[in-house]
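In full, the data:

***
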Amino acid sequence: MTSQTLNSKLSSLQFTSQLPQTAREALAGIASERAFGKGEVLCREGEGCEELFLINKGHVGLDMLVPGRGQVRVMTLGPGDVLAWSALIGNQGATATGVALDDVETVVFPDDALLDLCQVNSEVGYPLMRELAKAISRRLVASRLQLLDLFRVGANEDS
């Protein structure tokens, strides 16, 4: 896939559409595309993340290991969402396991090239970190809403 085609895809995805054109062009220069079939694992909870994924097509379930309950689906991501953001903030383990729920197409950024680009080019790094902060904030809100639902269900069961 050409850098120009990847740049066009980045222009259409929620996570990267608001970035300056020069930032998208720089990101397209280090990106590649990868497809995953239903049931394939994109990243595994607790393991290192060496790539950041932008979902272009399909859906990815985020599962967490809950003691006494096993794997629990906590969220579903779709086109425009970012996955394995731990790759962008350093060598941390993934906070969840990402599993393809159907055929998934992604734009992939290797962590080392992405970190290098962000460190040397503030026109890429700062806007990208802003978008990452927005994405993490949306996930935090979704998690809080799930907790509120759990409390409501628990309160109804006590009645």
